[in-house]
User: What shape does this take?
Amino acid sequence: MFGRLFDMLNDPAPDPMEGEDRELALGALLVRLARSDENYTEEEKIRIDRVLAQRNGLSGFEATEMRKRAEEVEAGAPDTVRFTRALKDKVAYEDRTGVIEALWDVALADGVRDAHEDALIRLAAKLLGVNDVDSAVARQRVEARRT
Assistant: This one.
């Protein structure tokens, strides 16, 4: 499965990404964000598990297993620019705004807005073609759920 996903991420003319491949790619992007400040905490892992469980109707165990597979994908994925651009070509705009919301959910898991995480979200939003307003609204939705 990982080989197919890596091939899709590196394909110059990819087919749309669906189902588990899309969610695994999202999980890998969430892991990349959480690792971006070089402090990949248990709190962030739990938040990633929660995001994956909610988006996919998974049990806690299934979400943890998906996150572990996503960690492997992230470790072998191309650089963030190519990785995120590949997602843009394979995921509908509405789903891409959901990706940004999920990124904010993980970035704010520890209650701190880290500059590395902010920078990666800004880059991801730009590369995913999500405008600043939609990204800000996604962040506000996450913040509202936390209060």
Summary: The mean pLDDT is 83. The helical segments are 2-10, 19-35, 42-56, 60-76, 80-90, 93-107, 115-128, 132-146.
